[in-house]
Specification:
It is built from 19 helices and 22 strands. By secondary structure, the protein is of the alpha+beta class. It has three domains: 2-143, Orthogonal Bundle (DNA ligase i, domain 1); 205-402, 2-Layer Sandwich (D-amino Acid Aminotransferase, Chain A, domain 1); 406-524, Nucleic acid-binding proteins (OB fold (Dihydrolipoamide Acetyltransferase, E2P)). The protein is globular, with a radius of gyration of 26 Å. It starts with a helix and ends with a helix.
């Protein structure tokens, strides 16, 4: 545990990528294999299930430090992180055993079923025995992930250097729903069994937002162009006559879409397809919110399947007849995909092939982008014809050129402190629109302002707070901001009656009074 805490502490102190890779590589080379495996799991967001609520942790920490609850809560909101707050307030009282990382996590897993009093005794004992950073890491294992600027990609790069296995191969091995409770370092990293890999997806290839000046530098004839569909990116796998569906977030979602099981009759073994899961009814692509109804249910009834039928819009072919073909060019892969689709295309097969378009000029590409909303897409994808299917986000081969967002002017009504370096600033905002001379909340937004603007809003919030609700401050309605968002849908869950996707602040409207802000009627016209 001390070795892992030291690793996290040193990672947190540097912003140099190469230094982080070196620190991780040295840890993987020196740590016991069981600890190394848990470190991989924790740094790829696979922590054990939470054995105790954060509410109880706050109560026990306040009791141990003899602080009134209100003072502990204020300290927590100033620090912005519960694990760090507890590690700072609680002091080491006794030297104790130094468990390994794996031993500590096994203890945490074991006491999940214990009574509350036993959990309290164990956690307080660990708090007293650990030093400051060990206590911080212990709390993080209990409550959530580590915000230390280490992506799974960076961690995989370091592991690759430590075990001398190709980074892309490792990235594939680390995909899926594995856990250190059911596998070993040897089985996962060094010598995985082929039968354990049948459900394993490939790492997704992701696109960057299109850069200014792109069209001046590139020939339009070098690019495949298709629409960017507004659904859920997914990978469909057929191996050993079994079907697996993975979301981009590495969640196995096969059971949410039972109608896809018919594909085992049409797709050959050893097929892996990349595409977009979309609601699709009566030949029309539906709204993303409809898809969420399917994802949010534990069991999917036949009625819901009929109300929200789905298809997979196919983009790419990653594995064919059991062979990884990601290093073939995009043109070669899409030729194979088109031939496969032509063979299996028939009534009732829940697959569509995303149309690849070719244009003579960038002006015509731009004209097609203007048609995106009419086709229920978010914009266009630009993919280099000769590009392989890479791992993660790589600049140069795939670009997304989204449609211009929808915008509306709204009034700031609530604010909350941010996290990390913005802990002491109010950076999380709630916005409202007019209805019958009242302001009705419609969205929250956390990004879009400059550091200088954030400081000015923070000063406004502190001077114009009218009420407090825990960490949230209600403010005098005075500031107007232009809010951008990607999509909008009706919603019974929201008081406003609408839900918007990816809201962010486009600009601060110093030129407008709150009476100039838009109404709910205005935004509902965008539905």
């Amino acid at each position: 545990m001390r070795r892992f805490a030291s690793l996290i502490e040193h990672l947190d102190r540097t912003n140099k990528t190469n230094h982080k890779v070196e620190l991780l590589k040295n840890y993987f080379m020196k740590a016991p294999k069981k600890d190394a495996l848990w470190a991989i799991a924790l740094l790829s967001h696979r922590r054990p299930s939470r054995p105790v609520t954060t509410t109880l942790m706050r109560q026990w920490a306040a009791e141990l430090t003899e602080l009134p609850a209100w003072l502990f809560e204020e300290s927590y909101h100033i620090v912005g992180d519960l694990a760090e707050t507890i590690s700072l307030l609680v002091q080491q009282e006794t030297e104790g055993d130094n468990p390994t990382l794996s031993q500590c996590i096994e203890e945490i897993i074991e006491f999940k079923t214990k009574e509350e009093a036993e959990k309290k005794s164990y956690i307080i004992d660990r708090w007293k025995r650990f030093n400051n950073f060990e206590r911080f890491v212990f709390n993080k294992i209990l409550t959530g992930g580590f915000r230390i600027g280490v992506s799974q990609k960076l961690m995989t790069r370091a592991l690759s250097k430590a075990v001398e296995i190709n980074e892309n191969i490792l990235a594939h091995r680390l995909m899926g729903q594995w856990t250190p409770e059911t596998t070993s370092f040897e089985e996962l990293v060094l010598n995985p069994k082929p039968e354990d890999q049948i459900s394993q997806p490939y790492p997704f290839f992701l696109a960057y937002a299109l850069e200014n000046g792109f069209q001046e530098k590139e020939k339009v004839s070098d690019w495949h162009i298709e629409h960017k569909w507004d659904g859920m990116r997914a990978q469909l796998i057929i191996r050993k006559r079994k079907i697996f569906l993975w979301s981009r977030g590495e969640e196995l979602i096969t059971d949410k879409f039972p109608e896809l099981h018919c594909l085992t009759r049409y797709l050959p073994d050893g097929t892996v397809l990349d595409g977009e899961l979309l609601p699709y009814k009566e030949g029309e692509i539906g709204n993303f919110n409809a898809l969420q109804r399917r994802i949010g249910r534990k069991t999917v009834s036949e009625k819901l399947q009929n109300e929200v039928p789905i298809i997979i819009m196919l983009y790419d072919l990653l594995e064919w007849k059991g062979k990884d073909i990601r290093m073939k060019t995009l043109a070669e892969r899409q030729e194979l995909l088109a031939a496969l689709y032509k063979k299996i295309k028939r009534e009732g097969v829940p697959l569509l092939l995303s149309e690849v378009m070719y244009f003579s000029t960038w002006k015509k590409v731009a004209q097609e982008r203007e048609q995106s909303k009419n086709k229920q897409s978010e914009g266009l994808m630009l993919k280099k014809k000769n590009s392989p299917y890479q791992v993660g986000r790589k600049k140069g081969a795939w670009w997304k050129w989204k449609s211009d967002p929808k915008t509306i002017d709204a009034v700031l009504t609530y604010a909350m402190r941010g996290h990390g370096r913005r802990t002491n600033l109010y950076t999380d905002y709630t916005f409202a629109l007019w209805q019958d001379k009242k302001l009705i909340t419609f969205a929250k937004a956390y990004s879009g302002l400059t550091d200088a603007e954030i400081k000015k809003v923070d000063q406004f919030v502190k001077k114009n707070t009218t009420d407090r609700f825990g960490p949230v401050r209600q403010v005098k309605p005075e500031l107007v901001f232009e809010i951008a968002f990607e999509g909008i849908a009706s919603s019974k869950r929201h008081k406003s009656g609408v839900a918007v996707r990816f809201p962010r602040i486009l600009r601060w409207r110093h030129d407008k009074k709150i009476t100039d802000a838009n109404s709910l009627e205005d935004i509902k016209k965008m539905l």
